[in-house]
Specification:
It is a single chain. The protein is mainly α. It has one domain. It is built from ten helices and no strands. It is globular.
Length: 209
């Protein structure tokens, strides 16, 4: 069982981490601003589903591979960077496409956003290493079943992430709703999305363990 003191500290630390600007919440923000609230929510669920993989990996020690093997770390890192560049290219390629919420909110488009979010998160080995370093700080070894404690903490982190990221995406959509009525604004926001994702890809590619 988790100690309540550790849980409270973990929630406070996780809340601040989720609010801090990073690749994931910036991406959710741009989805809310350039597409719709539903798009931001689905993207959030996609990103958070990736956290299940990272939590499981950290709980059972798989993340150690990324921490100790430079080859494994680089393979996943470059795969993630290439995927981000691909999404950035798609955003730039269709920068002049008019905003059509009936298309953006279709089941096929929302499914694509979910998959994009999932792979963006999973293909970032630094998240696995972060979880491996972060979760154990709030675990009580004397209470036994350490993997279960880590999985529980990961679930708490995921719930907080869903709440905060969803709020960020919805806020972004509300703030930009009137601006998006102008086609030129949509174009520039797609270019901005492309630039942000491209910058994140470069940052990931240049990152080290």
């Amino acid at each position: 069982m988790l100690e309540l003191t550790n849980v409270y500290l973990f929630i406070a630390a996780s809340f601040l981490l989720c609010l801090a600007p990073g690749p994931d919440n910036i991406y959710v923000l741009t989805q809310g601003m350039t597409k719709s609230k539903k798009a931001a929510l689905i993207t959030t669920f996609g990103l958070c589903s990736g956290l299940i993989i990272h939590t499981t990996a950290a709980a059972f020690g798989i993340s150690v591979i990324f921490k100790t093997s430079e080859v494994a770390f680089n393979i996943v890192k470059y795969a993630g960077a290439l995927y981000l560049l691909y999404i950035a290219f798609q955003a730039f390629r269709y920068r002049n496409q008019a905003l059509d919420l009936s298309v953006q909110n279709s089941s096929s488009e929302l499914k694509k956003l979910f998959v994009k979010g999932f792979f963006m998160n999973v293909l970032n080995p630094k998240v696995s290493i972060f979880f491996l370093a972060f979760l154990p700080q709030f675990v009580s070894p004397e209470n036994a079943n350490v993997p279960l404690q880590m999985v529980s903490l990961g679930a708490i982190f995921m719930i907080l992430t869903i709440i905060i990221f969803s709020s960020i995406g919805i806020a972004g959509n509300m703030l930009s709703a009137k601006l998006l009525e102008k086609p030129s604004i949509v174009k520039y926001m797609n270019i901005l999305t492309s630039f942000v994702l491209g910058a994140l890809a470069v940052k990931l590619a240049l990152s080290s363990r």
